[in-house]
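Open question from group meeting: does this chain pack into something compact, or does most of it stay loose? Before anyone orders reagents, we agreed to write out a predicted structure and look at it together. Recording both the input and the output here so the notebook holds the full record.
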Amino acid sequence: MNKNFLESLNPKQREAVEKIYGQVLVLAGPGTGKTHMLTARIANILQKTDTKAQNILCLTFTNSAAIEMRDRLQKVIGADAYLLKISTFHGFCEWVMEQNPANFSDRIQNSEVIDDLQQALIFKEIINF
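Structure tokens returned:
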């Protein structure tokens, strides 16, 4: 991994990046370097172990963070960045349900994802009830 990439991390971020085995919980506000740190951790794991990129799952809260993560990883590890499953929590859950329809009730199988406007209209209807 690029030495400059690691040098830009603070001590806590570096500790998370250098932990190869086990989970790491990162709680931090916007603009604190979470995406940078997670990118470095994934690259570190791929470079120091025999882990295959397609066996890594990275979940974020926003689509923009997922896109940024993949872009940064591509710059660090190359084309293998496209083998990782990088998704939002909601997107990953939707993917799991699509891949395993027999494991979900008919109600969920026949449902559809609604957009922000539809959500707002439902909330408005509930509040005005």
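Observations to bring back to the group:
The beta strands are 57-60, 85-88.
The longest strand covers residues 57-60.
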